[in-house]
Amino acid sequence: MRHRINTFIVPAPFFIEMLLPACIRHIHKPSRWNHIPAINLRNRRQTVANFRASSISTASTAEATSVMAQDGPTIQHPLQVAKRLEKFKTTIFTQMSSLAIEHGAINLGQGFPNFDGPDFVKDAAIQAIKDGKNQYARGYGVPDLNSAIASRFHKDTGLTVDPEKEITVTSGCTEAIAATILGLINPGDEVIVFAPFYDSYEATLSMAGAKITCITLRPPDFSLPIQELKSKLSKNTRAILMNTPHNPTGKMFTHEELDQIASLCIENDVLVFSDEVYDKLSFEMDHISIASLPGMYERTVTLNSLGKTFSLTGWKIGWAIAPVHLIWGVKQAHSYLTFATSTPMQYAAAAALRAPDSYYEELRKDYKAKKEILVSGLKSVGFNVYPSSGTYFVVVDHTPFGLPDDVSFCEYLIKEVGVVAIPTSVFYLDPNEGKNLVRFTFCKDEETLRNAVGRMKKRLAPK
């Protein structure tokens, strides 16, 4: 998706006037400036911001954009972005959500609930704000949240971690991933990822200058191709970046697969960055943290967040857990990315993580019911639906409907059917590997899911 940026170029005398103290401007204002109309403070700030943005000098091959000068002709400026990010466009989630709004489509694409999180967590945030916990938090997390994370991790994995030395709180798991990669990966280091993968992985690895090696998980079960993993590990492999339960496929790595990964990492002295944000949304088997396997905690960074489990994705509270020798790099990167995370929300997150086991049991029960509505509906429409053992996503084969690729199908689905899905080709280094697949989410209320299925039954038919 291409964007056009409107920037106003300010005449030099006017820009100088804006920078002068008010008292000087009013004492002496040359007559040659009198023709310039007054602007309000809000517009003035925007003009200054745009001026500064347009003054950045970076090499770019981006398209030229129209810029309207305030006093005359239109001039051209290129969109500017560092080379490390030139290949990355507007995220597919933004594109699809914009189309959804334009066409009034039901959004089963982007993975955010259309219902709110639990009251006891929201009440804790309100109380923290009222109690004055509104200034910068300690960089690596308020003590109460660090302790709650350590307790929850111990309960889930049996591992005891030091909340003061082995945990860093971040602005969502996406920042935890970025801080881990930027803090522990050097330019030229090889990092192995399993495709399809969350799109921020590739972008952040590119920002770090890493060499990305991709191993594809293939339908119908998206199992680990262990021989391919063995063949691609080398002396240059620094880390494996993995995700279980797995977005977008819903796959959960089995105990056997995790054992195989662990053995190879120990044998080849490779780190693991394990994204486990969907750990509480496991339906067919128990979630296993790879850090809990023998010999793995010392070489693993475990990444997680609050948003998926408590339906509070907008809070952006995440964390990284790792031994001291690894968390140090994560902390260093985090301190220069965001420094600290929202203070009152951290106190509320601590209350959330102390929820009784019954909360998680009800959560799984609720999502299993939603999953059944969507999966049975998609099958009745005519999709080839692949198994999903965890997360709140389902991947399907769209080819029965005769569209040439996933992007074409998703655009048709939005414009002609009124339902949003996400094309999975964006989750692969080679987009052709995902062109037959699209992803739906069931993190919506049951009425929304039934309405979406109803639209597809009426307006979509296999060819």
Structural class: alpha/beta
Structural shape: globular
Mean pLDDT: 87
Q: How many strands appear in the DSSP assignment?
A: 15
Q: Briefly, what CATH class of the largest domain? A: Alpha Beta
Distance linking N and C termini: 30 Å
Number of domains: 3
**Unreliable sequence segments:** 1-67
The number of helical runs is: 16
Largest sheet: 7 strands, mixed
Estimate the strand proportion.
5-15%
**CATH fold field value of the largest domain:** Aspartate Aminotransferase, domain 2
InterPro entries: Aminotransferase_I/II_large, Kynurenine-oxoglutarate_AT, PyrdxlP-dep_Trfase, PyrdxlP-dep_Trfase_major, PyrdxlP-dep_Trfase_small
GO molecular function: kynurenine-oxoglutarate transaminase activity; pyridoxal phosphate binding
Keywords: Aminotransferase, Pyridoxal phosphate, Transferase
Cofactor: pyridoxal 5'-phosphate
Relevant terms:
transferase, Aspartate Aminotransferase, domain 1, disordered N terminus, alpha/beta, globular, Aspartate Aminotransferase, domain 2, 15 strands, PyrdxlP-dep_Trfase_small, Aminotransferase class I/classII large domain-containing protein, 463 residues, 3 domains, four-stranded antiparallel β-sheet, seven-stranded mixed β-sheet
Architecture overview:
Residues 106-455 form the Aminotransferase class I/classII large domain. Keywords: Aminotransferase, Pyridoxal phosphate, Transferase. It comes from Mikania micrantha (bitter vine). One of its GO terms (cellular component) is cytoplasm. GO terms for molecular function: kynurenine-oxoglutarate transaminase activity; pyridoxal phosphate binding. This protein has a 7-stranded mixed beta sheet, sandwiched between helices. Strands 11-12-15-14 form a 4-stranded antiparallel beta sheet. The protein has helices at 12-19, 22-27, 41-55, 92-103, 119-130, 143-157, 172-184, 200-207, 226-232, 255-268, 307-310, 324-337, 343-353, 357-381, 406-417, 446-459, and strands at 64-68, 74-78, 106-107, 167-170, 190-195, 211-216, 237-243, 271-275, 300-305, 318-321, 384-385, 393-397, 419-420, 422-423, 437-441. α14 (357-381) runs parallel beside α16. The chain is globular, with a radius of gyration of 25 Å. The chain folds into 3 domains: 12-81, no CATH class; 92-111 and 358-459, Alpha-Beta Complex (Aspartate Aminotransferase, domain 1), CATH 3.90.1150; 119-355, Type I PLP-dependent aspartate aminotransferase-like (Major domain) (Aspartate Aminotransferase, domain 2, 3-Layer(aba) Sandwich), CATH 3.40.640. The protein contains 16 helices and 15 strands. It is α/β, with parallel strands linked by helices and 463 residues long.
